[in-house]
Specification:
By secondary structure, the chain is an all-beta fold. It is about 0% helix and about 40% strand. The protein has a four-stranded antiparallel beta sheet, with no helix packed on it. About 15% of the residues are buried.
C-alpha cells in the first residue's frame, strides 16, 4: 500500500496520511488521530461555458485636423509703448517703487509683480517723469494691463 504524507501550514501539528486506493484519510491534529473516508469527484469532461465577448467596436475614421486659429498676441506696447509700462503676465503687484511726478532712469525698476510664485521686475522703458501710477501693492493685474504712465 502506497501512502502520501501531506503537511498543513498550521501552527499546531497537522499531518494527514492518504491511502491512494482506499480514499481514506488519517489526520493527526494536536496528537489526536482521526480517520475519514473521502470521495473525490471527477472533473467534468466539458469546459464550462462562458458568455461570448462583446463585438469589437467599429474602427475609428481618421478626420482631418481643423486649421488652428491664430490670434494676434496681445501687444505689450499697446498705444505709445515708450510712455507706459504694462504687465507682461497675470499676477499680483508686490511692490511699487515710483510715485507720480518722480523722475526715473531707463531700465529702473518701477514695480515688482508676482506670478506663479516668481517675482518679475518691471522696468521703465526710458528715462522720464512718472505721470500716473495705476496700481497699488496687493492689487491683481492681467496681461497687458497698464501699470505706470510716463510724461
Amino acid at each position: 500500500m502506497f501512502s502520501d504524507r501531506i503537511t498543513f501550514a498550521r501552527a499546531n501539528e497537522s499531518v494527514a496520511e492518504r491511502q491512494k486506493d482506499g480514499l481514506k484519510l488519517r489526520i493527526t491534529i494536536d496528537g489526536k488521530t482521526y480517520e475519514a473516508e473521502v470521495e473525490i469527484l471527477e472533473a467534468e469532461e466539458t469546459a464550462p461555458e462562458y458568455p461570448a465577448y462583446p463585438a469589437a467596436p467599429p474602427p475609428l475614421e481618421s478626420a482631418a485636423m481643423p486649421e488652428p486659429i491664430v490670434a494676434a498676441a496681445p501687444s505689450l506696447e499697446a498705444g505709445n509703448g515708450a510712455n507706459e509700462c504694462r504687465s507682461p503676465v497675470t499676477g499680483m503687484v508686490i511692490k511699487v517703487n515710483v510715485a507720480a511726478g518722480q523722475a526715473v532712469q531707463s531700465e529702473q525698476v518701477v514695480a515688482v509683480l508676482e506670478s506663479m510664485k516668481m517675482e518679475m521686475h518691471i522696468a521703465a522703458p526710458r528715462a522720464g517723469v512718472v505721470k500716473n501710477v495705476l496700481v497699488a501693492p496687493g492689487s491683481s493685474v492681467k496681461v497687458n494691463q497698464l501699470l505706470v504712465e510716463f510724461e
